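FIELD: query
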Amino acid sequence: MTERIGTTCVQGGYRPGDAQPRQIPIYQSTTWKYDTSEHMGKLFDLEEAGYFYTRLQNPTNDYVAAKIAELEGGTAAMLTSSGQAANFFAVFNIAGAGDHVVASSAIYGGTYNLLAHTMRRMGLECTFVAPDASDEELEAAFRPNTKCVFGETIANPALAVLDIERFAAAAHAHGVPLIVDNTFPTPINCRPFEWGADIVTHSTTKYMDG
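FIELD: result
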């Protein structure tokens, strides 16, 4: 039986087994105990999976991330301290100093400043194109060192709607991923992966948080 989106909102990311709590436990510990320094060392060196510091990861956060990934139809997710941090990580894990990004010009002001100014100081350049740019204008924005394309499903606050399929097609034609900030519609109203996006970000303090 296919699960409907409303059920995923409630049940997604956490399926308790026999004699496990019905609701997700809230882990408030900042740190975790280990019997040996060797075990802890393997965690810090990322040789083993596990928890050692809540600022990086804890089970409660992982359940929330898994719920968002399931709602979006993604394969995995991670939480960051803010939506802007999510956008930074999404871009900067792909593009760095000496690279280039193509972005819709109709995006949240903080994200525009991140791409146009903050990341520029880090050596990354960005070309902005209107969300309704012609195919020729969109194509002209790409360079040999373009590493990704960025846009918002519905721009904050302009409410301009991104043609995800068209931007995805342009990105994929150049062998790069499309990153879409899906904050405004949430996966209830739009799931960018279904239209060709490769990475989806959110600021959960907006509609997703109510």
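FIELD: remark
The domain at 83-209 is CATH 3.40.640.10 (Aspartate Aminotransferase; domain 2).
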